[in-house]
Amino acid sequence: MRCLTGYPSVIDDLGLVEALKAECDRVARAGSVKVDVDAREIPQKLPQDTALCLFRIAQEALRNVVRHAGASAVEVSLAPMDGGLQLAVSDNGAGFDSARDTGRQSLGHASMRERVHLLGGEVDIDSTPGHGTSVIAWVPLQAVPS
């Protein structure tokens, strides 16, 4: 079993979808970025490690948008896909040259990759200067015991 220190009670209280919406609302209120959320057909009860992984990836991606992107809009989506859940966070900000930055991966990007890897998932961070950034993470969804 994984250590879930720092597990936000909002996920237990409201579920992952509402926790994501609350985080997106917080980011939008704190800055000048518009954040849209689209999450459909997501089970209310998810394994804690899956919910925490996706929530923390969304938080880190949103933090990067606020700190670095200079974006005016962000789209966050969560959807069932291929026996798992896919989270996508895409912005219209400055972007960066991902080919040039491969040798010095940021701690935030490394953290996202490690979280997803621990669950047997995949993450792709795609960015182009002047065209924004997309973080797309997929994690398998195992059944939650009743």
Give Rg in angstroms. 15 Å
Shape type: globular
In what order do the strands lie side by side in the largest sheet? 1-2-3-5-4
What's the story with the biggest beta sheet?
Answer: 5 strands, mixed
The fold-level CATH name is Heat Shock Protein 90
Helix and strand succession? HHEHEEHEE
Q: What class do helices, strands and sheet pairing give?
A: alpha+beta
Pick out the low-confidence regions: 1-5
Provide a quick synopsis of the model.
Helices cover 38% and strands 25% of the residues. By secondary structure, the chain is α+β, with helices and mostly antiparallel strands. The protein has a single domain (9-140), classed as Heat Shock Protein 90.
